[in-house]
């Protein structure tokens, strides 16, 4: 369906034309008319189907039509996202869509100094995209008031509510006016999370494009059964030789369950002469931005990520997704493989399943209601794996000026005083004698 038939204003249509968007996706076709009428909405659609435009376009129209200036230190539309990357991505889209509507857009998230964000909010802003933690800091320090919020959006709502954000959300909701429009958008919505979402919505319209656990149709899914200590060798072989007949592994996104696991994969790949980068919560904002930029440009074609950090990765052309470790929450599998096969392209998802992960695989197949094809290990895999492990390149030693001083510990494991201090005490005792 054409955007022109959905009732959007001319400034928004001009912005869409500037981005060469003419045809609305199913989630946009169903959500936009409901939101233009001011209804609350629960939208469920796969990652990459256009959820951001589905809530942003009608919201821009409603904010512009009200013709109201934001008051100092306030915002009119609040969008909450679970990660910094996703917040940045949404804000970029909001700025592009509001190009001819003269609305102001800014972000607020952790990992950067709060002063710049405080100054951006001083005059008031139409659209604020924030992560919960930094938003609460700004409100509690009285740099921001939420009493003028007209539209509240929770993007990736299942992740927001399922990963410990529920208490932060309850605090934020108390600062919001009771009369507002509230929108929930997510790729998955398990029943327990749906029950929580119902508490924030009032008589919502519901838009469900696909069943909550459906995986992308154009993703070819495979699983290889391998020992835990052989996964690194299998990954190395696959990255060197390629996988499947879907073309080269041009841009590969690899998932681990933990931040430590992501760093470990980067280190092991480097030991085999393969460059990669990691993105996770322990990385600083500049480090995360640098890794994403290198991945987007193709300078570093391999990115290792955790589930939380990957929520903001919107990179076109991801050819392969590799589940180095299967997720212990089956819904995360849907999010992971949704990073490939975007915008009508084909994609490949490969999962490495060790013996202790077979239960995770069964949960995934039960949730998605499909059997994942088994990909056999490469020929002579055991011998090749042993050869790779033996020939692994040792990482370069840490330069002397970057080494941390060794800290001596006593028999209980507690840090002992520096040697200089002990020697000084010994001399003092000797002098006393």
- Strand residues, percent: 15-25%
Which architecture of the largest domain per CATH?
Answer: 3-Layer(aba) Sandwich
How would you write the strand order of the largest sheet?
Answer: 3-4-2-5-6-1-7
Q: What is the level 1 CATH name of the largest domain?
A: Alpha Beta
Instruction: Give the count of structural domains.
Output: 2
CATH topology of the largest domain, anyone? Rossmann fold
Largest sheet: 7 strands, parallel
**Uncertain residue segments:** 395-433
- The count of DSSP E runs of length 2 or more, i.e. the number of strands, is 14
Distance between the termini: 95 Å
State the CATH superfamily name of the largest domain.
Answer: P-loop containing nucleotide triphosphate hydrolases
> Tell me, what's the shape?
globular
Question: What is the average per-residue confidence, as pLDDT, rounded to a whole number?
Answer: 84
Helix content: 40-55%
Radius of gyration: 25 Å
